[in-house]
Structures are given as structure tokens and as C-alpha cells.
Amino acid sequence: MLAQLQPALSGLKLPVRLRLWDGKELDLGPEPSVTLVLHDPSIVAQLSNPSLDSLGQAYVEGKLGLEGPMSEVIRIGDALSLALGDGSTSAPTREGHDKSTDAEAISYHYDLSNEFYALWLDREMVYSCAYYETGSEDLEQAQLAKLRHLCRKLRLQAGDYLLDVGCGWGGLARFAARECGARVLGITLSKEQLALGRQRVKDEGLEGQVELQLLDYRDLPQDGRFDKVVSVGMFEHVGHVNLPLYCQRLFGAVRPGGLVMNHGITSRYLDGRPVGRGAGAFIDRYVFPHGELPHLARMVGDLSEVGLEVVDVESLRLHYARTLNFWSQRLEGRLDEAARLVSEQTLRIWRLYLAGCAYAFSQGWINLHQILALKPLPGGGHELPWSRADLYR
Fold first, then answer.
1. In angstroms, what is the C-alpha Rg of the chain?
2. Boundaries of each DUF7884 domain copy (predicted)?
3. Among candidates 161, 158, 129, which has minimal Cα distance to 145?
């Protein structure tokens, strides 16, 4: 089988070395930067029609070893799947999302280990796309800039009551209270995040301003008590079927004249089908079970249908590519520590996931949009300034 496949592989001229189960080596191109270690002869058949999902699965299961920089591993894996794979993209699926299913999915991803996340996140533990005002910022600076950018877009003021949907470890909630003087209710479905988030609120003496709760978005109060609502990296878990309900809950939570900010990953395709060549399937299987990415147009439409008026949209696609590169590099620099916190299989998943997502954003396979909407005042008025000038002072 390998003899039949060798001409096709060598013809790609990729900087790859194959190391077979018997120790023999085969270079597919000059100056190999990546070595694929075939521990199992069955991998040869997968190389004849590879996808990012099948290659990733082989690595996670230990049938395939990878040596070399993860960013280069991902690039070469994509080149292999593009040249030898069938390039098929699966039809979009629409999964049911109830409270139990969503809670289990959130726990699977976010309750992994607070210590593991702390290895490669910034000090505030902000697990979402950072904001690079000049492109020269490090991760710490860019994450603080993102928190500032969100609060500015929300025109957050002292005394405002902010709802943070999917608050994570509470970095944004604490920033909004500390820097803007806001009162904040943050909600999450992750017990691990909640425990650490509450401890950090206590450590900073913000208990009078910040409250964090274990609460599903479907149970949010609908009496318009909040002045502003922010949701960061959360609607990816909602599912296409529940997007109208999600938008309705945000509408009901905010007062007339209030603002709603939705910051999240969006699909390249109008129908929301997964990223091609198997990358989306890998993420659904190993990283974000039941996750679904809507297209920007779908989200804008659903927000509009419930009565929210979209007033500003910003793409941060390359910002997320840079953020994920930082995360990947930081994890790669602390693999020994990570191996003591999570299983070998889990670490393999996350090495592929972070480097792979950085590549996906850089290639434009997926996007990240901040969508700012308002709940109009009676008669159609609003409280926004006439221009965006205040955002950039």
C-alpha cells in the first residue's frame, strides 16, 4: 500500500518525513520540518484519502505521532488533505439543545482544569478573542484592550447594571466593575469557572458590585432590569434551533434604550455548515460537542426579528488568529506542566485544537464578529452618540 502511495506523496514535495512502524524513514521533500510517525500500518490507508478529521483522530488515538512545530504540522496536514482528500463538506446538522445537553457540553469543555487553562491564558483568564489596537501588543495587553473595547462599545458608565452571559472566570465582569463602576451579574454553566471566578471577585473586594451565578440563559429574568448585556464566546453553544430563543432572552433582559453586545465565532457559510476537509468534524467530536456556528447574516436576522436593532458590526478574524497563536505557543512552551494536569489524549486534542483554529482563522475558514444592537426606546429613539468618535479617544 505504501509503495502505491509513495509517488503521490513524494510528488507533493512537502517538507515531511515519514517514520514507519519498523523504523524506516521516507522523506517526501527537501529539509523536512515535520515528521509523521506511523505507529500503525492502518494509517497508510488513511493517507491515501486524508481529512483533517481522520488525521487528527489518528493523532489523538496514538496511531500517528507528530514531531515538529504544531503550526507547521497543521499547515502540512491541510496541504495533504487538499491534495489527496476528496474535499467534501458535510451537510449542516441541526441538533437539539436542552438544558441538560448544554450543561454537559459546557462541563466537558470548561471544567477540564482551571490550572490547565491558567498555563496558557492571560492573567485575567480571558478565554476569547483579544483586541490588538496596533498589532504589536502582547497577549496580556491585548486582552485588557478587548475588555476596554467591549465596555466602550457598550458605553458602560458608573451605576449601569450589566449582564454578562457566559461570564467564564469573570474577567470582564471584574473589569467592568473595577474600571467602569458598573454592577454586574455574570452567569455560567461551568462549576469550575464559577468557583474560581467567585474567589477572584472576593480577592479583589468586588463582592458588592459583582455577582456570579450558575444559570442557564433560558432562565434569565425578562423584566428589562439590565442597562447593558454582553455575551462573549457563548452563542456558539446555543445551536441554530435555539438562536431565536437566545435572542429573545437577551431582548427581554435589557431595558428600552439599553445595548446588547454579542461577541462570537461565525460561520463562513450562509447555511452554517461545518468547516470543510474535516476540521469542523474534529472540533465537534473532541473539543466543542454540540457546538454550531451561525453565519453573521443569520445572527443579525434573529436579533432583528425579536426587536433589537443592529447598529454596529466589527470583524476580528485576524485578531483571533493572533490570539490563538499566542495561546498555542504558550501551551507548547509548558507541555511538561500540562501533562501533569490533563491526560495524554486531552493534551493532544488541545495542541491540535489551538494551532488548528489559529490556522482556520488566518485562512478565513471562520470569522469572529462583534455585533452591537440596541433595544429602541418607545417611538424608535435611542441613546447612542451621533458617531463612533468616543470609541477611539
1. 22
2. 13-75
3. 129
Which CATH topology does 2-84 take? Nonspecific Lipid-transfer Protein; Chain A (3.30.1050)
**What is the residue type of 165?**
V
Chain segment 343-373, per-residue pLDDT in tens: 999 999 999 999 999 999 999 999 999 999 9
Amino acid making up residue 258: G
Q: Contact, 251 vs 372, CB < 8 A? A: no
For position 5, what pLDDT does the model report? 67
pLDDT band at 90 (very low <50, low <70, confident <90, very high): low
Taking only the tens place, the pLDDT of each residue in 303-342 is: 999 999 999 999 999 999 999 999 999 999 999 999 999 9
Catalytic (active site) residue 129: no
**172 neighbors 193 (Cβ within 8 angstroms):** no
Range(s) within the chain of domains with CATH label 3.40.50.150: 99-392
CB 296 within 8 A of CB 369: yes
pTM: 0.94
**Active site residue: 129, 151, 167, 357, which one?**
357
The pLDDT-based confidence of 2 (bands split at 50, 70, 90) is low
Q: Does residue 9 contact residue 28 with C-beta atoms inside 8 Å?
A: yes
Neighbour tally for 63: CB within 10 Å: 17
CATH class for the domain made up of 99-392: alpha beta
* Side chain identity at residue 345, one-letter code: Q
Can you tell me the distance from the alpha carbon of 261 to that of 80, in angstroms, rounded to the nearest whole number? 39
